[in-house]
Design brief:
9% of the residues lie in helices and 50% in strands. It is mainly beta. The strands form 2 sheets. Strands 3-4-5-6-7-8-9-10-11-12 form a 10-stranded antiparallel β-barrel. Strand 6 and strand 7 form a beta hairpin. It is globular.
Amino acid sequence: MMASTRIRTAIVASIAGAALIGTAGFVLANGGDGGGGPRAAGPAPASAAKGPAPAAALRDMAFFHGAWTCEGRNSSPEGTSFPVRASARVEPRHDGSWLVFDLRELRTPQNPRPASGTWMWGFESSDNRYSGFFFDSIGNRTEQYAPGWRDGGLLFEGRILGPGFEAPYKDVIRRTGGASFSISGQGYVVGKWIVFQHLDCHR
């Protein structure tokens, strides 16, 4: 999801140094957890069956409704890392056709300039897949898609765009208990996936 200002600066520097610019979108390779490099996403096959209406599909996300407390780390391509704490709230909107996921980092000595952001989850019935659109206080935004729940997790893959950079990006979301989940935000930089933010969230 989010990366701090100093991490975003490191991302820009790494991408510029490697002349790495992301393409328009990426999809899950080999049905796994996103191992290996990204490959360009195309439209859904013409034979793909249409899915349910958005509000019906998003009922599968009811687990996330409500308030959460999160702890984790923000990291950079150069290997710097610092702890982060955050609060989150997830609510259905627009007759249940969207889920709004608000995340706010807390100010701490280790994170003196906390970021905040909003993630909107939807469902595209025509392509039978979840969609995710994120924007934050740093100026970053993402466009991502997930084929659905697999082995207790969701993999949203796509791209992140921010001031001066663009790169492949994915969020790996896993239910870790009856009232807990994790989010791992990863960028594809210098030929490999790097975890920029990992959060463990609980009630």
